[in-house]
Amino acid sequence: MDKGQKFYITTPIYYVNARPHLGHAYTTLVCDAVARRRRMLGYDTFFLTGTDEHGVHVERSATASGTPPQKWVDQVSAEFRALFDKMGISYNDFIRTSDARHKRGAQELWRRLQEKGFIYKGTYTGQYCVFDELYVDAAGPGAPCPECGRPTETVSEENYYFKLSAFADKLLTHFQEHPDFIRPETRRNEVIAFVKSGLRDLSISRSTFKWGVPVPGDPKHVMYVWLDALSNYITAIGFGAEDQDTQARYQRYWPADVHMIGKEIIRFHCVYWPAFLMAAELPLPKNIIAHGWLLFEESKMSKSRGNIVRADTVIDVLGNDALRYFLLREIVFGQDGSFSFDALVQRYNSDLANDLGNLASRTLTMIQRYFGGAVPYPSPLVAHAAADDAIREQAEATVADFARLFDDYQFSRALETAWSLVGAVNKYLVEQEPWVVAEKEGEENKARLATILYTAAEALRVVTALAHPVLPESTVKIWSQLGLREISKFNLTDLKWGQLPLGGKLGKIEAVFPRADKTAIERMQQMEQERTSSSAAPQSSTSTAGSAAPAQSAATPAPTAPASDGKITIDDFMKVELRVGQVKFAEKVKGADRLLRLEVDIGTEVRQVVAGIALAYEPEKLVGRKVVLVANLQPRKLRGLESNGMIVAASVGDEGKPVLAGFLEDVPVGAKLK
Ligand code: ME8
């Protein structure tokens, strides 16, 4: 890694239609840890986060709550910012797409695209998913969105288009020449396959709503929310600014070194964004890193599923560092990973309270007790043992391994390495028994005691310096207990064994990680319940039957109400043909986490059904199972697959987990339910 360079890292800018949850906190704290380490390595680091505030989605949420859009976005954006401040996130700037500076920059990007001849006017008539802000090609009225399964709306609009189709080859060449452009490899392959399947021009304006950045020269239109949002990465650092100082900031920091995103938004970042930049003849970001999802109770934590946990809850009970450590250590970065209060408390107690906490408290307490709180002088000759060298060697290897792994975004493995040093030093203390040596008389024993405690304290210093970007609050405390000052100004490139000043006076010794007791979990669960019930944020509704489409979200218009008393006649019910079917074959639908393709025997024929039950059922376990099928539904297409019928399932809990309907007695395949 070169020194003295700039490093520009960004999070996605978060939608203000939902209150912040642990998923948003995750990306932000990962970036924060990376930014902090880069600063400690001497990089001129710029870390950007912010909120994405435009679009019909936000306009509708605001209107539904009777609030003017600007006031609504001000409120929710402030919540994101307050959370990040509470989390101690070291962002350098917080961009809002409703900022004047952003609008100016986004319009400047538009002008450039237009000047270079990549924008033209055309008409689009078809289906549109409001939730994903996506046009759904080749789909009929009411068709479900291929991304989220919600019903699409029919729109007919005269729009501006971007000539995305002109960039397929250029993008593929760029991916080939820059193998690290998209990480990890699996996401890179997905993007390459998407581009190879052909790119169509992209509609980049909307005229059916007002809440957006006006198109330069044609204010009846607002810019497509993704073009608007993606441009934040340059507008925040001064692209399109009027004054020279701000422009200089853009020159200094662009291109970004890392755009960190969740895996669901790779297409926007890895295809659209580079194509816009190529068209405007601007440099491309160096790395786009897509991480996996934080799951809670086995499905993606998200507002629409209603299965969210708030970062505040964890912070209020266990503190910021516990949350950061857990998410970076427990989740293999890049893959999906589960969050649970049990695992959090277990990890906190074992790695922080026990391992690091114990190492710090016993080493420092013994130095206090036996050496009056001054770092003892090790004795390289008389009182030296092979075990001391082993710790020193392991510490030196840890510095190198931690750097290699952390800077390769393998946070979990980097922390594992550092914690094996912690474990080794704790074991070293148990074996060397300094408390026994301290009881013995004579200079040699005194020298041996000094060497043991020096070795432990020096190893503690090394781990503390390495862990600072991950545990910014507690490492400050340990550092000052070691008698050292300003850990964040410590230059990590200088980290070497033997730098603990001999004879240096320790600071005041206090426990850094108090053990969490059993009530911690209950307290967090209770806080979540209270926050959920008192939250003003829209919650998802629970559907009574599982279907190929996920549960309705608050953002989706409610289904049309039945007859005024809410009841239907028996004739209405008899119109629905429910049959017993048996699953003959089941497989996951590629690229759709929630969907399974099933072949279901209903006595008279075998039907293909696409069902949104993949998060609850393994395909292999369904084969042979009897299910209830709505057999006379009109066929519809999901992810290009025709679905002939709907499997009946209960929708359980806030997250709408599907549970298949079944029978206690054996029933013949094809039997009708009435
Ligand atoms: O997509 N696990 O905003 P958004 C992990 N405004 N990360 C999660 C997560 C989860 N369960 N839930 C959310 C948008 N995230 C657009 C982005 S950028 C120009 C515009 C994180 O509010 C993750 O980083 O839906 C994901 O990509 C982002 O929040 C989505 O936030």
Characteristics:
single chain, 674 residues, 7-stranded parallel sheet, 41% helix, 18% strand, binds ligand ME8
Main sheet summary: 7 strands, parallel
Question: Rough shape?
Answer: globular
Q: Average pLDDT value? A: 90
Q: Enumerate how many helices there are, as a single number.
A: 21
Q: First CA to last CA: what distance?
A: 70 Å
Name the ligand types: ligand ME8
Number of strands: 27
The helix content, as a percent range, equals: 40-55%
Structural class: alpha/beta
CA gyration radius, whole angstroms: 29 Å
Low-confidence stretches: 536-564
Strand content: 15-25%
Description:
By secondary structure, the chain is of the alpha/beta class. The chain is 41% helix and 18% strand. The chain contains 21 helices and 27 strands. Strands 1, 2, 3, 4, 8, 13 and 14 form a 7-stranded parallel beta sheet that branches. Strands 18, 19, 20, 21, 24 and 27 form a 6-stranded antiparallel beta sheet that branches. Strands 6-5-7-9 form a 4-stranded antiparallel beta sheet. The protein is globular, with a radius of gyration of 29 Å. The N and C termini lie far apart (70 Å). It binds ligand ME8.
